[in-house]
Automatic annotation (TrEMBL), chain A:
InterPro entries attached to this UniProt entry: F-box-like_dom_sf (IPR036047), F-box_dom (IPR001810), LRR_dom_sf (IPR032675)
Protein name: F-box domain-containing protein
Source superkingdom: Eukaryota
Domain F-box residue range list: 19-66
Automatic annotation (TrEMBL), chain B:
Listed Pfam families: Skp1 (PF01466), Skp1_POZ (PF03931)
Residue ranges annotated for the SKP1 component POZ domain, each copy included: 11-74
Gene3D superfamilies assigned to the protein according to its UniProt record, in alphabetical order: Potassium Channel Kv1.1, Chain A
UniProt KW keywords: Ubl conjugation pathway
Species: Polypedilum vanderplanki
Stretch forming the signal peptide: none
Annotated CDD domains: BTB_POZ_SKP1 (cd18322)
Protein name: Skp1-related protein
GO biological process terms on file: ubiquitin-dependent protein catabolic process
Domain SKP1 component dimerisation: 120-166
Family the entry assigns: Belongs to the SKP1 family.
The keyword Transport is annotated on this UniProt entry: no
Pathway recorded for this protein: Protein modification; protein ubiquitination
Length: 527, 169
């Protein structure tokens, strides 16, 4: 962007030393300013005054941050929109036709999201015809009529294609070789070859997800292993294949992994896979760092069979997916990865088995830095201690005492703490928050809780000399709101009771959302 | 190194209200506008060049600008394109502290940075304003920046309605 274009008229710097006001700031500078704002704030800014609205409307770059969302669940017809988007275009009834296309092209929209509708092939053709600039397309639950009429079109810049539970033919429309993220989940099994057709052409694809009915036959397709996606880093199979056909997929899966063994960093197979797969994954994937392990796999595998697996020194991050049943196998599999620094168990069910696994980890994997768990059991073991723990994620904290202890024990190393889902009416956790804020290296705290509780019980934060960010997900009566508060200690002192006392501009600014939510009094104590 | 000819010669600039400031060539070259000017007269001419008049920048603002460019003279300045690509915006604590000034000064700084074409300073200062806007309502923004509300209730309703149709990425 050119910064030297100067509108001398607007500068108004005269000899009598007129002060410059906000309105003297030229349009192009105003545009720079808007780049720092989220689409949500941009919407607010359009309401400030006509000039701001115009500056935003006239900037293609700013406007392209919005997705045109065409959705109508009730009748599978896109018919209700009276006015679409920001150009005063009046559309009474439409299917996906030229009018929408014109709107999209007029605003150079680069991201299009269509969901829950039945489209006529010709309408889609018409709509996409001049949309070569599209960068991402998301199609969810889309049915296509008269499929044979679909036309292919060139999309040179399309980086992200997300086809979720839709007619597979939708994929055929996109002629592109620029994808870096592809998500293909289809609503029928037939013609998986359409997916192959597009994958063949990709030279930059980093992230591939296969799901829906496509998971059943993708790996069995003729030629799937001949596609060498040299850049593929992340591969996922989601909503995995039927039980009856899983076994037939093992060989093709190993073949597929062999082809991509050099580039793959992350593998997420969210269905129970065979031991042979793990054998291959642990021993023949030199760069794999991240692995998802569905716990159903563990319960189906025989304990002895783990002896067949070799250790792997590269994998440093494991996530367990699903309901937890069997402990010995989980410890066996984590022990195969001595370099483990990150473990995500937040999906597991809490049980005494789980606590034993946690204990095992603390005894044998002291290098762990990232720990994600659902919560801690009441009969919490004092012995659970990770000397290098930096990030701690916990879903709920039903009992504060153990968490206070846990946080206290790890206070020297903790940098990031998340309490994800504490919507139970339990305010005792504020003792935990106090404990967290007392950690000398803490940089990031994220909690979610009901607003009223936060207001009532967030009494006092302990002084620290460090700046940290507190992300509070306030759950108001109707919707979830997010507020980010940034405190500078010890300069700012925060007291949440029926009022908030602050003494820095930064704080006051961030308090506005609180105010919107019914906290009317805030006292600027020190100014 | 040649002692007679310092590698970073002195340069003088004059503000709109006639105050002269001395700084170094290296610092002042951070300004694209002045860089263009100096390139135009050629390297050799720098020492013999008189004070550069900056008719659009007053002395108060120029003092602030010079403080900034002198601090950053040895840093590699990102291009405008690079600045825009920075999504996770890490701000140098020195800059953060530097930008602690009242709004009037900030407006002056922004217009000066724009006129002098100092991309990094322009983005820092506009970012500062953007941070002020965050989490505010339209009315709060108006009163903060002293902006007149020129919408009629009907118009604002129309804009709001249209806004419903666009969703954040």
């Amino acid at each position: 962007m050119q910064c030297n274009t100067i509108n001398r008229k607007k500068l108004k710097m005269e000899d009598n030393n007129d002060e410059i006001e906000f309105r003297d700031i030229p349009d192009e500078v105003l545009q720079h300013l808007f780049f720092y704002l989220s689409p949500k704030m941009l919407k607010v800014c359009t309401l400030v005054c006509k000039r701001w609205n115009k500056v935003i409307e006239n900037s293609h770059e700013l406007m392209s941050q919005f997705v045109l969302n065409i959705e109508d669940k009730s009748n599978f017809e896109i018919a209700k929109a009276q006015k679409i988007y920001r150009n005063h275009y009046s559309i009474k009834t439409f299917k996906l036709t030229t009018e929408i296309k014109e709107i999209i092209v007029a605003h150079r929209l680069r991201h299009l999201h269509i969901s829950n509708c039945t489209l006529h092939a010709e309408d889609l053709n018409e709509c996409l015809k001049d949309l070569g600039i599209l960068e991402s397309f998301t199609g969810k639950t889309i049915k296509i009529q008269e499929k044979s009429l679909l036309k292919r079109a060139k999309f040179k810049r399309l980086k992200k294609l997300h086809i979720d539970f839709s007619d597979i033919d939708l994929i055929l429309v996109f002629d592109t070789d620029a994808l870096d993220t592809a998500y293909f989940a289809t609503s029928s099994e037939d013609r998986g070859s359409a997916v192959l057709q597009i994958l063949w052409k990709q030279v930059n694809l980093k992230d591939l997800t296969i799901g829906g009915y496509l998971a059943n036959n993708f790996l069995k397709l003729n030629g799937v292993c001949e596609i060498a996606l040299n850049t593929l880093e992340r591969f996922r199979i989601e909503r995995g294949p039927n039980k009856t056909i899983r076994d037939f997929l093992n060989d093709p899966l190993i073949k597929f992994l062999t082809v991509h063994q050099a580039s793959l960093i992350s593998l997420e197979l969210i269905y129970p896979v065979d031991l042979n797969i793990y054998k291959f994954v642990l021993n023949h994937m030199p760069n794999l760092k991240y692995l998802d392990i569905p716990v159903t796999t563990l319960s189906e595998l025989k304990t002895e069979s783990f002896n067949l697996l070799e250790r792997n020194n590269v994998i440093n991050s494991i996530r367990f997916v699903g309901q937890f049943k069997n402990l010995p196998k989980a410890t066996a599999i984590v022990d195969l990865c001595p370099s483990l620094t990150s473990i995500d168990m937040s999906d597991l069910t809490i049980s005494s088995h789980f606590m034993l696994l946690l204990f095992h980890l603390s005894q044998n994997h002291s290098q762990i830095e990232v720990l994600k768990i659902p919560n801690l059991l009441h009969d919490y073991h004092n012995g659970i201690y990770f000397p290098h723990l930096k990030e701690f994620f916990v879903k709920t904290i039903p009992d504060q005492e153990h968490y206070c202890k846990f946080i206290q024990q790890h206070s020297k190393t903790l940098e990031k703490v998340t309490i994800a889902n504490s919507n139970d009416d339990n305010f005792l956790k504020f003792l935990v928050i106090e404990q967290i804020t007392a950690c000398p290296n803490i940089k990031y705290i994220s909690i979610s809780a009901q607003t009223s509780i936060i207001m009532r019980k967030f009494n006092k934060l302990v002084d620290t000399n460090h700046e940290w960010t507190l992300v509070v997900n306030f759950r108001g009566p109707s919707e979830l709101k997010f507020v980010t508060l940034k405190f500078n200690f010890p300069q700012d002192c925060v007291i949440f009771q029926d009022k908030v006392m602050v003494h820095s501009e930064e704080m006051i600014r961030n308090m506005h959302t609180l105010e919107d939510m019914g906290l009317n009094r805030f006292v600027n104590k020190y100014k | 190194m040649d002692i007679d000819r310092p590698s970073d010669p002195q340069v003088s600039v004059v503000s709109s209200d006639g105050t002269m400031f001395h700084t170094t060539l290296k610092s002042i070259l951070l300004s694209g506008t002045i860089k263009d000017m100096i390139e135009h007269i050629g390297e050799g001419g720098v020492e013999n060049m008189g004070a550069i008049p900056l008719q659009n920048v007053d002395s108060k603002t120029l003092e602030i600008v010079i403080k900034w460019i002198e601090h950053h003279k040895d840093n590699i300045q990102p291009t405008s394109e690079e600045i825009k690509d920075k999504t996770a915006d890490f701000i140098d604590p020195w800059d953060e502290n530097f930008l602690e000034m009242d709004l009037d000064k900030l407006y002056n700084l922004i217009t000066a940075a724009n006129y002098l074409n100092i991309p990094q300073l322009l983005w820092l200062s506009t970012r500062k304003i953007a941070m002020l806007i965050k989490n505010r309502t339209p009315q709060e923004i108006r009163s903060l920046f002293n902006i007149e509300d020129d919408w009629t209730p009907q118009e604002i309703e129309a804009v709001q309605k249209e806004n419903q149709w666009c969703e954040e990425k």
